[in-house]
Amino acid sequence: MLDIKLTELSLHRLTIIAGTVSVQMSFLVAFSQLVPAHTVTLFRGIISLRVPRFPLLYLGIVTFLSLTPLLTSASLLLALFGFLTSWTYLRFYKTVFPDLDTSQSSSLRGDASETFAFAEFFPAPVKPFVAAFADQVFEALVAMRLCTPFSPADMSAARGDSYLQRGTPGSARAEAERRRAIALRALDQRLHSASANPSSSQASSQPSGQPSGQQAPTQTATTSQPGEMLGETKFEPDHEDDDTRKS
Amino acid sequence: MPPRINIPPVTRALLAALLFQSLLSAAIRYRQWTEHADIVIPYLTLVPQLSIVYPWTFITTTLVESNVFTLTISGATLYYGGRYLERAWSSRELAKFMAVVALIPNVLTFLTLVILFTLSRNESWTYVNSPALTFFRRPC
Question: Is A38 helix (H, G, I), strand (E, B) or coil?
Answer without folding.
Answer: coil
